[in-house]
Amino acid sequence: MKIGLLGHGVVGGGVRAIIDEGATWEVRELEIAKILVKDESEMVDPRTTLHAEDILNDPSIEVVAECMGGLEPAHTLLKKALQKGKHVVTSNKKMLATYCEDLFETARENGVTVHYEASCGGGIPWMASLDRTRRVDDIDSFRGIFNGTTNYILSRMYSEGTDFEEMLKEAQELGYAERDPSDDIDGHDVRYKVSLSCVKAFDTLQNIQDIVTYGIRNIRKEDLDWAKANGYACKLIGTGAYRGDFISACVIPMFLKKDDVFANIPLNFNAIESRSKTLGPATFVGQGAGSLPTAHAVVQNLIDIWKNQDPEINDKSIRPIDNTLHTGVFYIRTKKIALFADIMDRRISEDAFLTRKISLVQADMAVKSAVDDTLFIAEVAE
Known about the structure:
- This protein folds into 2 domains: about 1-120 and about 295-315, 3-Layer(aba) Sandwich (Rossmann fold), CATH 3.40.50.720; about 125-285, Dihydrodipicolinate Reductase, domain 2 (2-Layer Sandwich).
- Helix content is about 35%, strand content about 25%.
- The protein contains 12 helices and 19 strands.
- It has helices at about 10-20, 55, 75-85, 95-110, 125-135, 150-160, 165-175, 180-185, 190-200, 220-230, 290-305, 360-370; strands at about 1-5, 30-35, 50, 65, 85-90, 115, 140-145, 205, 210-215, 230-240, 245-255, 270-275, 280-285, 315-320, 325-335, 345, 350-355, 360, 375-380.
- A hairpin with a 4-residue loop joins strand 10 and strand 11.
- Helix 3 (about 75-85) packs parallel to helix 4, helix 4 (about 95-110) packs parallel to helix 9 (about 190-200) and helix 6 (about 150-160) crosses helix 7.
- The longest helix is centred in the first third of the chain and has 18 residues, at about 95-110.
- The chain is globular.
């Protein structure tokens, strides 16, 4: 099966290396015919090209694998590939979460498929596990540590007793965090992955902007000191739950009890769990990013297409997000603590308190109305 590869960076280079090495008989059935690169400096392989049309207009290429990142031109190129009857594999969670309805509809119209294992969980077979579970069971909910960068920062802050800025700098020096880490530390990366997990788990499309999202940008040593003193660890958690006519979905730091398996996931590892009636909780732990783990997931999807397995062409319902049924106790630290009197249960420091048990919607409304750009919020496990 001939493949056109869009992008030859960290992930694309890993895909090319795995396929060229051909360690298994399945991988040896795959062939990279052409590779789209950004400029002449990257043309170090005879298969490279600067022109996407060389891939899109080649009738021998059956599949286009996109590892470029960014919204454009990735979205436009994949849509053109689908329109030309080529299957698509992507590792680009931001682009797919933004344009999945458009790309899925285009795939159905042209009798081809969209695969996206690598867009969520890196080397963890998360999407494949959802497909497999749903052959027997409806999935009720999921939760997970979807981002290795923030897990590294939180793990190091917790174990070393250091503050956020120091650990962010260390993560950047190690290559775990980008120069601009906003997508990671503000929770947007997890939001894209939660959205795509809802697509796969519940067959539902949603407006990603409606997913309540809080990151760890404002976390401070004092927050983790309180968590540690009270028997909690802190993790950035993405969740989704099927509610029939609607779904609930959010991204929020959580203070988890020490006996929770997620409280013990170290450094840059990911862990994701689904819940269903007959299987119960099914948890997957592994590398959530990196060249070869993510490339491994791309190649798995390429083999799926070659074997005609797990086509992503079924219809998706559009369901609204409503977090009213998501209730809990929240830790909030803010300069404007007086504004939260109506939801406060007890004060724990000069500028931090625990709420009474309220809905996530109530907590979100209170936080947004306070307009405090230094505020930190975390849900506290009961």
